[in-house]
């Protein structure tokens, strides 16, 4: 509905008055009358005006969609919605696809026309239009659409020139079609190429690809078995990274938790890796996860523990999965509870431990031990479904009833016994206490006295359960009748202020007094076995997740910006930063010390991509430092202080790029006009229209499509003007568009690399720099930075295995500039030697300077 409201803001203030009035109707009849009037008006517009322009069609189709969302049937307007698909305007095409996704039946005669429009958009290579088409296919998900596009989408997914946002949508769309019509998704050469998406630099693409591969490999495991080593490699980079390394995908100080969980689940589809190096790396990952679980929490918020524990329990599940493959000795249980962190985990992880215990139980005795131990460790977080399930299993299994009675009797002897343990003990001893009554240490009176010693410390519900246990004892152990009757007739029970306890005491006392032994045995006979059904704790987990819910990490709550943020919720803000709603791109980080003084409030003017700082203030403090952070990454916070945040998310492919500049302000009541600007001569910049005003405390996202016409060395500038206290003040920032963003990574063999290296041997073609390392010389970090820089990493090319060799081509409209690089680390001296060779001197020097500042 957010998109619907954005697209119809003008209409709702103008011709959409009728719908606003419909919302405020005091009766259903009045609303229907108002809606019918508006439907008649829209129908007449569609029939009477054959030359209706695109804007009007969008407006009326949007109204029909809104009326449908109010609960009214819509039986016309479908053709007008289909016509909007041929529009070249995003908002018109968006409303057309939205209407079709919601209102068009998969058996409609319009499907052929819709499919033709989708084919045109997929062939357009416009990433925005392609994403809209893919979303529509996934939303409808019919067999007809699977037949039409199941063979086309894999080609889009693995094509080298597909933008990252399109790859992500294509992977999820293919997953949807495979789930609905698996027989229509052809396996072929693309299956081996999709595995390599696990190496993609864009984390959103990797996350979507893991979901797709996990589904596909369950039916065709051999086709995707190479994913194991790649999944281990990606998991290793995540768990060994600091939260700042994956800032854009860090959730409450936990790096990429959703992706980590998905990778661990993918690995559970295969046996342990045979390759010793891969296996060793995976063991290191699991050890790191377990060690981090023991560390003090970095945040007291439940989201932090949820994310951390979700990864922990998937790691435990993987360990148990491998335990099955290696066939442990008979009777040796997986060391499940030994891996739990000492602090009591929160409710959702406890539920998962209970499920894992049931799923991987070696035998039922071990299961009883595990759950009772879980209640002892984390009793406050054990829901009723968990101990209900223990009771259900014990009642249904004759071979475990005596063991359960003995174990729970021993557990109840602890001085501090959790109330959930008392519940389990009362139920099991009431049913099966006779199985251990032969031992003098657990005689009937000993059992009763043990339970009754907990009675006055329990809640009303637990006391009511114990009263039922006592009447069961009278049936099982007649020798306890007198003692229990004294308890039942005491004033504290028979005159209890709680109606439930009073009624039970009176009825049980009367029943034990007048009923014969046979009648008592019939009324209080042992509980019959439960019918086989879904585990109550599994049902509880599903209920917690809700229909259609995603990861268990979010405990049912979604960030309102999650769709925009790619599913990444920003880290907790402080009092000196904008409100959470102002984190437009989900890029919040701790404010840089060099962010400068707070900008002044008042009107905000954005002059995007001004040619020079002429007429503007000097660069804001910290600009250069923030700018350099983006050389090897595409997303992050460009500027932030107490009142203003500017975030950037960008994507580049060949000589094209897309920048999403999010401007959020958290002060004042005044409005902020946004103006478009021009880019430098080497860049062709086109901007999409945005709302002309930004209210105080609101946010706006400016999308810029960039075409690189020629190589360049100066970054474009972003100028922001504030009016504060009657004075106009400026902030000027460098936008993170550098020439290496237009790299196309190029794979080369050793012979080809050195042949080309010799060809670029002129002095003006080479740039070299020797510099001291300013960060730890970590191999994985170095590789990640070189890949982030844009070049391909060529393995086994350099005779020295410690050196790094890369190759790529700078793609511009005017020319292509080949680039070869060689990075030689000297760990002993903590120094690097960086050499770059290109066909243009200016490019070599500029790239050398940019890359050297990353180490």
TrEMBL record:
Keywords: Coated pit, Endocytosis, Membrane, Protein transport, Transport
Gene Ontology CC entries for this record: AP-2 adaptor complex
Domain named Clathrin adaptor alpha/beta/gamma-adaptin appendage Ig-like subdomain: residues: 628-736
Keyword Membrane: yes
Location of the protein in the cell: Membrane, Coated pit
Region feature Disordered, mapped onto this chain: 540-600
Topology in membrane: Peripheral membrane protein
Ranges of Low complexity composition bias in the record: 570-600
MF annotations from Gene Ontology: clathrin adaptor activity
Homology family: Belongs to the adaptor complexes large subunit family.
Name the record gives this protein: Adaptor related protein complex 2 subunit alpha 1
Organism: Sphenodon punctatus (Tuatara)
């Amino acid at each position: 509905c957010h998109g619907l409201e954005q697209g119809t803001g003008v209409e709702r203030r103008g011709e959409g008055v009728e719908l606003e009035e419909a919302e405020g109707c005091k009766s259903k009849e009045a609303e229907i009358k108002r809606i019918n009037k508006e439907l008649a008006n829209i129908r007449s517009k569609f029939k009477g005006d054959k030359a209706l322009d695109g804007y009007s069609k969008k407006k009326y189709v949007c109204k029909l969609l809104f009326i449908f969302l109010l609960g009214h049937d819509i039986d016309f307007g479908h053709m007008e919605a289909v016509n909007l698909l041929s529009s070249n305007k995003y908002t018109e095409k968006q409303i057309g696809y939205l209407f079709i996704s919601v209102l068009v039946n998969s058996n409609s005669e319009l499907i052929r026309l819709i499919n033709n429009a989708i084919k045109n958009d997929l062939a357009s290579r416009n990433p925005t239009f392609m994403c809209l088409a893919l979303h529509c296919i996934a939303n409808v998900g019919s067999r007809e659409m699977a037949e039409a596009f199941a063979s086309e989408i894999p080609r889009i997914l693995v094509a080298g020139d597909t933008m990252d946002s399109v790859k992500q949508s294509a992977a999820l769309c293919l997953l949807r079609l495979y789930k609905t019509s698996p027989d229509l998704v052809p396996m072929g050469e693309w299956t081996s190429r999709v595995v390599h998406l696990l190496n993609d630099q864009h984390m959103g693409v990797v996350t979507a690809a893991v979901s797709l591969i996990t589904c596909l490999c369950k039916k065709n495991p051999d086709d995707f078995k190479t994913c194991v080593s790649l999944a281990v490699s990606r998991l290793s980079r995540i768990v060994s990274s600091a939260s700042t390394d994956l800032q854009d995908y860090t959730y409450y100080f936990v790096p990429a938790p959703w992706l980590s969980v998905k990778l661990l689940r993918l690995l559970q589809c295969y046996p342990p890796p045979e390759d010793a190096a891969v296996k060793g790396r995976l063991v290191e990952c699991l050890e790191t996860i377990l060690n981090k679980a023991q560390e003090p929490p970095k945040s007291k918020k439940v989201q932090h523990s949820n994310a951390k524990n979700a990864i922990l329990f998937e790691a435990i599940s993987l360990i148990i999965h491998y335990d099955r493959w290696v066939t442990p000795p008979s009777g040796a249980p997986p060391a499940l509870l030994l891996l739990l962190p000492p602090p009591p985990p929160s409710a959702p992880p406890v539920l998962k431990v209970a499920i894992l215990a049931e799923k991987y139980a070696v035998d039922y005795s071990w299961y009883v031990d595990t759950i009772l131990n879980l209640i002892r460790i984390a009793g406050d977080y054990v829901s009723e479904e968990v101990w209900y399930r223990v009771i259900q299993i014990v009642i249904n299994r004759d071979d475990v009833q005596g063991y359960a009675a003995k174990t729970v009797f021993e557990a109840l002897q602890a001085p501090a016994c959790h109330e959930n343990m008392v519940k389990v003990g009362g139920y099991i001893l009431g049913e099966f206490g006779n199985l251990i009554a032969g031992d003098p240490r657990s005689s009937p009176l000993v059992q009763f006295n043990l339970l009754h010693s907990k009675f006055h410390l329990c809640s009303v519900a637990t006391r009511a359960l114990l009263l039922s246990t006592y009447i069961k004892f009278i049936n099982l152990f007649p020798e306890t009748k007198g003692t229990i009757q004294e308890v039942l007739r005491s004033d504290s029970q028979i005159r209890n202020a709680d109606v439930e306890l009073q009624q039970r005491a009176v009825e049980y006392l009367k029943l034990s007094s007048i009923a014969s032994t046979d009648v008592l045995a019939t009324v209080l006979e042992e509980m019959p076995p439960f019918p086989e059904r879904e585990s109550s704790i599994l049902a509880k987990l599903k209920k917690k997740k809700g229909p259609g819910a995603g990861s268990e990490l979010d405990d049912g709550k979604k960030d309102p910006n999650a769709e925009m943020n790619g599913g990444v919720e920003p880290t907790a803000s402080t009092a000196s930063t904008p409100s959470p709603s102002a984190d437009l791109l989900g890029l919040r980080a701790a404010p840089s010390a060099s962010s400068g003084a707070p900008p002044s409030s008042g009107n905000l003017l954005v002059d995007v991509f001004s040619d020079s700082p002429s007429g503007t203030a000097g660069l804001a403090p910290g600009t250069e430092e923030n700018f350099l952070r983006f050389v090897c990454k595409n997303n992050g916070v460009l500027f932030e202080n107490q009142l203003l945040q500017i975030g950037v998310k960008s994507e580049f492919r060949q000589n094209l790029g897309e920048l999403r500049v999010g401007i959020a302000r958290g002060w004042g009541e005044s409005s902020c006009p946004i103006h478009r600007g021009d880019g430098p001569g080497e860049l062709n910049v086109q901007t999409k229209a945005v709302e002309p005003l930004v209210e105080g405390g609101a946010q706006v996202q400016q999308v810029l499509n960039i075409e690189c016409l020629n190589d360049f060395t100066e970054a474009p500038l972003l100028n922001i003007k504030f009016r504060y206290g009657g004075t106009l003040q400026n902030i000027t920032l460098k936008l993170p568009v550098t020439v290496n963003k237009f790299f196309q990574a190029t794979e080369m063999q050793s012979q080809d690399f050195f042949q080309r290296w010799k060809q670029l041997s002129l002095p003006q073609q080479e740039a070299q720099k020797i510099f001291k390392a300013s960060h730890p010389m970590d191999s994985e970090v170095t590789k990640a930075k070189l890949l982030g820089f844009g070049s391909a990493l060529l393995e086994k090319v350099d005779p020295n295995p410690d050196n790094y060799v890369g190759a790529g081509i700078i793609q511009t409209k005017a020319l292509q500039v080949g680039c070869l690089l060689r990075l030689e680390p000297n760990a002993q001296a903590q120094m690097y030697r960086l050499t770059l060779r290109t066909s243009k001197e200016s490019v070599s020097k500029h790239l050398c300077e940019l890359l050297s500042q990353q180490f």
